[in-house]
């Protein structure tokens, strides 16, 4: 008898707790002074920025963060799945191709922020569907024990490093962007030849840039093409690696810059708060914070203060690409990449 | 009054007939024993009356109301007001003796005072007063039987079904418990449907006996005297035949 | 009748939570540009690569299931039936790998056995070369996943052993030694539970993607995952997930085939009776050493790696700062999820065991199918179904996460209920019927208390799975309501290894602490019932 009472007691207690919790959550979601942002930029770097925004404006930020591409399907899929009834106001992409994809799928809305004026035209959508800021560079991470060191992405096809190089899965993230970029500047034939050579040279494929960096740091491989923030974070942790900006020579292609991109979602539930957040993200203050943070991202606004170990845009030989073209090319070559990666 | 009426009842299990064209009228207050070898559908008959399974054809009526017919159950077991003692007793191990007895009374919404009274009565009747707070696992085989009996009878059913309840007991205990059942039946006046494979038990307990065949049909129905006489005659006949053969071969 | 109404509602709930979203995805997968086409499926079958992936998946799943069962079964028996010292501690320890995201376990092993790992640094670099080559492939994946899913077999074995009637074993003991009794009597009796565990391990391994990706061994879920993450092509991704469901059906059919001659005990364990214990005698020390060694390899080493890496207070402070709220949320959602899963699973298990409704087989198959389907497919299906203006009151709250748990994990509690109910003679409920109790009263006062061991086991299993869930939660959690596993993965991107390790340790403690407390409460309650 007592047990039956105890069970009933637990059941009632559970139900009350659930109801209270649930009502609380529902009310929070309905508040007007909130903004919902889906973030592909690494949480460790983006969260402080968003917390600062919250503190300065009093607008509560509800964020959904992304995982590295290979760990789980992320935020992009959510945005696409939710498009008929958008829950997000803003999307903080960590590369502009995703922003282009959203534009092509009709999920984003144009917004030209006053803070976007100074940003070079190459790094924003002409119609305002996305705006770039705080960029990473695609660099080579090289283990200190390696001698001589590679200085170009062509090292992937150099027999000297046969079987000693790793690259992140070419179907995801910034690696895809880079390969698509190569296709646009080299043309299909040369790009495919490069890819074939790389494969013949025994390149290994890792799930993501993070793993590539760790493999190189642990000595499993000699070098890899990764994002600059992956290298800086390992450097600041004291790992035995070096960052090399590839192809900086006069006649070389230069190194690819991958800016963050901020997007206003079409049909955003809180459009005013969304615009304020976008303005803040595109501000010089944000770029300065991201430059000094461990992600060491390169500001796109001229005249933003940076720490010494962050290369400045005007000091770099930048690969000149049109991101819209790259996005289109990426869609085209994906079946090819799938075959190349053996999937 | 006809307490239970079977009309052309059949029940099949994977093509095999457990009960076939079974017709019978059970009078109020009688003690009907269903006798037969294992697997001949005796338990099936009880389960049909209890309402756990529907007859494939034919109908069953209790106190004049048709409760099941042609594959349909009209009245579910909870509503039939029939008492049952199961072959494995099915005493609820997590409830005390009192709990086992009170469960059905509570289900019928009988108020506490009356419940206590009825439980007290039945427990005295089966002589289990000291064990009222015990759990079934703590009782002996015979005591458990009496609890099962009490649990069925505390609800004052018009019909009591018993499915080979004494088969696992030794002879002495079995005889004693048989006596208890008889005593209770005479005292409380319920109609008894009793299933067994033991002939002595059948003759001891019943007023009428139904003999079942392996194919689910009735072999013979009659009063205890009639059936006993039948067996006597059969035994004498086979004895004579054997003797005849022996003489011949000698 | 209340019975049919409630059971039908349960079936409908499962359909709404799980089936409808999947159907929506299925429909999409056979439409190309708005007309019917099997193009995605054809593409799938045409590629020879898919066959290789499938082969890899089969190999990995079979090996993992084999190891997990061959080790988990004897381990469960040792920890439940013998006088091995420190049994409770071992049960707790061996459960830990299930709570750590398998990916982290893989990374721990990499830190240990990689070319420049601890082994290379402190022992022998050339040995490390071999271990690293061995780690990055089928052997490594098997090691990680076997140790992760071994607890499932162990726990279900222990739960099943509770239902074995000691009389049956005693009867055997009179004529044979313990080994023969185990082999001839005990194990056949607990076989349904063990087979269920094996089936679950197989399906979980089959759907696992993160570990094989890290260790460079390509498996079938890669295809569906790639379609999602690289191509954003939901239709192709669903088509690529269907073979996983087909495999699940085959596994289910195999299980049904093996179980068709069930060994039902004539008299299952009476309440509160002491189980018969095996005295290990002189073997005790050797067995203890063996089990400790196993524990060392499978549990202590990876956990120690985590502890060492997170060894600074600052890591833990940062961890609690960043993830304190998600920790609390995880526990609350897991509590609610487990309770709901137990209730729904109890009813659906009852439906399946008693075959009350004609479509009982479909309900069973549906739960297994949902369990095996990649979480992303289910997640996106849930979004498609529930993300509408008029269902906002569900979608924008954690209720959607709970719904996701229900869709994915009901198979666990349902099947555990089925095997528990199989041990209860039907006469128990019939006796209650005959004395006039309606269905609700029968279930609450008779059936549920008799099934309480299974209900508790189901609750604990449900709690563990809800807590560690990443796939479904990741897809549907309302912004700001993320759980700890999700947080671990979002912070993993360039988060310091110390932080991640600290988060994992916190997760382990957060799971085990309430779990052990609850287990002790339950055990006293159960024992307090019997004398």
Structure, described:
Chain A is an alpha/beta fold and 343 residues long. Chain A folds into 2 domains: 161 residues, D-Maltodextrin-Binding Protein, domain 2; 132 residues, Periplasmic binding protein-like II (D-Maltodextrin-Binding Protein, domain 2), CATH 3.40.190. In chain A, α4 crosses α11 and α5 crosses α11. The longest helix of chain A has 29 residues. The N and C termini of chain A lie far apart (61 Å). The model of chain A has no long low-confidence stretch (mean pLDDT 88). The N and C termini of chain B lie far apart (58 Å). The longest helix of chain C is centred in the middle third of the chain and has 42 residues. Chain C is globular. Classes of the chains: A alpha/beta (343), B alpha/beta (250), C mainly alpha (531).
List keywords for this structure.
heterotrimer; A: 343 residues; alpha/beta; D-Maltodextrin-Binding Protein, domain 2; 2 domains; 10-stranded mixed beta sheet; 11 helices; 10 strands; C: 531 residues; mainly alpha; MetI-like fold; two-stranded antiparallel ribbon; 25 helices; 2 strands; globular
């Amino acid at each position: 008898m007592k047990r039956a009472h105890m069970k009933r007691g637990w059941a009632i207690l559970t139900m009350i707790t659930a109801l209270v919790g649930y009502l609380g959550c529902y009310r929070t979601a309905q508040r007007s002074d909130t903004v919902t942002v889906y973030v592909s930029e690494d949480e460790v770097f983006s969260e402080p920025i968003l917390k600062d925004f919250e503190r300065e404006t009093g607008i509560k930020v509800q964020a959904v963060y992304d995982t590295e591409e290979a760990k789980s399907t992320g935020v992009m899929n959510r945005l696409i799945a939710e498009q008929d009834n958008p829950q997000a106001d803003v999307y903080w992409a960590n590369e502009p191709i995703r922003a282009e994809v959203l534009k092509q799928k009709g999920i984003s809305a144009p917004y030209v922020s006053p803070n976007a004026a100074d940003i070079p035209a190459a790094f924003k959508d002409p119609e305002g569907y996305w705006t770039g800021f705080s960029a990473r560079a695609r660099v080579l991470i090289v283990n200190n024990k390696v001698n001589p060191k590679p200085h170009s992405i062509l090292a992937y096809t150099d027999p000297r490093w046969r079987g000693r190089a790793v690259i992140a899965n070419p179907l995801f993230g910034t690696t895809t962007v880079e390969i698509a970029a190569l296709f646009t500047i080299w043309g299909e034939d040369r790009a495919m030849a490069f890819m074939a050579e790389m494969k013949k040279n025994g390149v290994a494929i890792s799930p993501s840039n993070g793993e590539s960096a760790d493999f190189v740091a642990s000595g499993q491989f000699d070098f890899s093409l990764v994002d600059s923030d992956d290298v800086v974070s390992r450097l600041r942790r004291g790992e035995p690696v070096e960052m090399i900006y590839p192809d900086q020579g006069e006649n070389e292609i230069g190194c690819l810059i991958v800016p963050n991109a901020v997007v206003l979602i079409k049909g955003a539930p809180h459009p005013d708060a969304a615009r304020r957040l976008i303005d803040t993200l595109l501000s010089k203050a944000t770029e300065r914070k991201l430059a000094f943070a461990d992600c060491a991202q390169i500001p796109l606004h001229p005249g933003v203060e940076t720490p010494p170990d962050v290369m400045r845009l005007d000091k770099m030989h930048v690969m000149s690409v049109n991101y819209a073209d790259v996005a289109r090319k990426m869609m085209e070559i994906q079946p090819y990449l799938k075959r190349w990666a053996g999937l | 009054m006809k307490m239970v009426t079977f009309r052309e009842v059949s029940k099949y299990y994977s093509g095999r007939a457990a009960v076939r064209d079974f017709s019978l009228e059970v009078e109020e207050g009688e003690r009907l024993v269903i006798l037969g070898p294992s697997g001949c559908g005796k338990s099936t008959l009880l389960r049909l009356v209890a309402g756990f399974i529907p007859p494939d054809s034919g109908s069953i009526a209790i106190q004049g109301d048709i409760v099941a017919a042609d594959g349909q159950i009209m009245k579910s077991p909870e509503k039939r007001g029939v008492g049952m003692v199961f072959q494995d007793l099915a005493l609820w191990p997590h409830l005390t003796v009192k709990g086992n007895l009170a469960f059905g009374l509570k289900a019928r919404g009988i108020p506490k005072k009356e419940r206590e009274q009825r439980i007290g009565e039945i427990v005295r009747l089966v002589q289990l007063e000291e064990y009222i707070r015990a759990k079934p696992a703590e009782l002996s085989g015979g005591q458990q039987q009496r609890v099962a009996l009490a649990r069925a009878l505390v609800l004052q059913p018009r019909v009591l079904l018993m499915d080979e309840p004494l088969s696992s007991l030794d002879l002495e205990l079995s005889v004693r418990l048989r006596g208890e059942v008889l005593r209770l039946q005479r005292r409380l006046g319920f109609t008894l449907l009793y299933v067994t494979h033991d002939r002595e038990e059948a003759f001891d307990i019943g007023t009428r006996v139904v003999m079942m065949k392996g194919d689910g049909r009735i072999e013979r129905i009659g009063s205890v005297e009639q059936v006993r006489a039948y067996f006597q005659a059969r035994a004498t006949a086979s004895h004579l035949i054997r003797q005849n053969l022996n003489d011949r071969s000698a | 009748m209340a019975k049919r109404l409630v059971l039908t509602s349960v079936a409908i709930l499962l359909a709404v939570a799980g089936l409808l979203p999947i159907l929506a995805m299925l429909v999409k997968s056979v439409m190309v540009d708005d007309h019917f086409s099997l193009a995605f499926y054809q593409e799938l079958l045409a590629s020879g690569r898919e066959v290789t992936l499938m082969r890899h998946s089969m190999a990995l799943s079979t090996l993992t299931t084999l190891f997990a069962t061959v080790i988990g079964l004897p381990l469960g028996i040792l920890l439940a039936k013998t006088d091995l010292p420190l049994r409770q501690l071992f049960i707790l320890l061996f459960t830990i790998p299930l709570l750590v995201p398998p990916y982290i376990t893989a990374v721990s092993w990499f830190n240990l056995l990689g070319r420049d790992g601890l082994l290379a640094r402190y022992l022998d670099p050339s040995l490390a070369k071999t271990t690293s080559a061995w780690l990055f492939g089928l052997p490594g994946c098997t090691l990680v996943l076997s140790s992760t899913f071994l607890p499932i077999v162990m726990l279900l074995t222990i739960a099943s052993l509770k239902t074995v009637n000691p009389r049956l074993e005693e009867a055997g003991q009179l004529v044979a030694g313990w080994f023969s009794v185990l082999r001839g009597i005990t194990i056949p009796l607990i076989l349904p539970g063990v087979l269920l565990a094996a089936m679950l391990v197989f399906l979980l391994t089959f759907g696992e993607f993160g570990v094989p990706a890290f260790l460079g061994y390509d498996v079938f879920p890669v295809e569906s995952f790639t379609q999602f993450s690289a191509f954003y092509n939901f239709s192709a991704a669903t088509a690529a997930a269907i073979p996983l469901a087909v495999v699940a059906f085959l596994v289910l059919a195999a299980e049904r085939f093996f179980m068709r001659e069930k060994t039902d005990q004539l008299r299952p364990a009476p309440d509160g009776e002491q189980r018969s214990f095996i005295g290990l005698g002189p073997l005790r020390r050797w067995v203890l050493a063996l089990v400790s060694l196993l524990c060392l390899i499978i549990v202590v080493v990876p956990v120690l790696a985590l502890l060492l890496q997170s060894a600074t207070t600052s890591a833990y402070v940062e961890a609690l700062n960043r993830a304190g709220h998600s920790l609390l949320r995880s526990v609350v959602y897991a509590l609610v999820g487990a309770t709901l899963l137990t209730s729904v699973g109890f009813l659906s298990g009852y439906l399946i065991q008693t075959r009350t409704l004609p479509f009982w087989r479909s309900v069973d198959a549906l739960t297994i199918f949902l369990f095996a389907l990649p979480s992303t497919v289910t997640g996106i299906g849930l979004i498609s179904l529930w993300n509408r203006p008029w269902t906002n009151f569900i979608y924008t709250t954690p209720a959607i996460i709970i719904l996701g748990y229900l869709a994915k994990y009901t198979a666990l509690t349902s099947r555990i209920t089925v095997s528990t109910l199989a041990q209860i003679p039907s006469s128990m409920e019939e006796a209650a019927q005959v004395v006039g109790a309606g269905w609700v009263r029968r279930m609450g006062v008779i059936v549920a208390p008799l099934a309480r061991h299974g209900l508790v086991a189901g609750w604990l299993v449900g709690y563990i799975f809800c807590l560690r869930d990443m796939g479904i939660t990741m897809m549907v959690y309302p912004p700001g309501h993320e759980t700890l596993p999700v947080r671990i993965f979002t912070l993993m991107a360039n988060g310091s290894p110390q932080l991640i390790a600290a988060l994992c340790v916190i997760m382990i403690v957060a799971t085990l602490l309430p779990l052990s407390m609850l287990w002790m409460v339950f055990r006293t309650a159960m024992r307090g019932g019997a004398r």
